[in-house]
Write a structure and sequence with these properties.
Elements (H helix, E strand, L loop, with lengths): L1 E3 L16 H8 L7 H11 L5 H24 L6 E5 L9 H8 L4 E6 L2 H10 L8 E5 L5 H5 L1
Parallel strand pairs: 2-3, 3-4
Antiparallel strand pairs: 1-4
Length: 149
């Protein structure tokens, strides 16, 4: 399933009875695109982690902050205008296209993920994005050919 701004696409099936890593990560970031099953799984998985759940949540926020700094640098000092975000995850504030466009409004971004909930959120998020500058496609990092095509 490939889609983009304004493109017709099939509605993905989302199983909310099974935890999913993208939704659990959204929970770690303080997002709302997760379900009790995702929160419970994250709490169980990270209870024994050094620093516990709070430590993992702090790590997730730090990871997101690094993403923002890297994209800001690439769009600014490095002059990059095309971005490929593979394994996008559930969209949150300060997405690659938002950060890049604050520095360089002409920046182009392609988001890639294979998770139906991520693609559903991306479709809704990008509805108002400038046509042709931001796209999303269904894809898998381990199969780069279709992504690059």
């Amino acid at each position: 399933m490939a889609a983009g701004n304004g493109a017709e696409r099939e509605v993905p099936e989302i199983d909310t009875s099974v935890p999913h890593v993208a939704r659990a990560y959204d929970f770690l970031l303080g997002g709302k695109a997760n379900f009790k099953v995702d929160r419970d799984a994250a709490e169980r998985a990270y209870a024994a982690w050094p620093g516990g759940l709070a430590g993992v949540q702090a790590d997730a926020r730090a990871h997101r902050a690094v993403l923002v700094r890297v994209v800001r640098y690439l769009a600014g000092d490095a002059g990059i205008r095309q971005f490929l975000d593979i394994g996008t995850g559930v969209p949150k504030e300060n997405n690659v296209h938002e950060v890049a466009r604050r520095v360089a409004p002409e920046s182009r971004v392609v988001y890639v993920d294979r998770d139906p909930i991520v693609l559903a959120h991306a479709h809704a998020l990008l509805r108002g994005a400038p046509k042709g500058l931001t796209r999303y496609i269904s894809g898998e990092l381990r199969d780069p050919g279709p992504i690059l095509a």
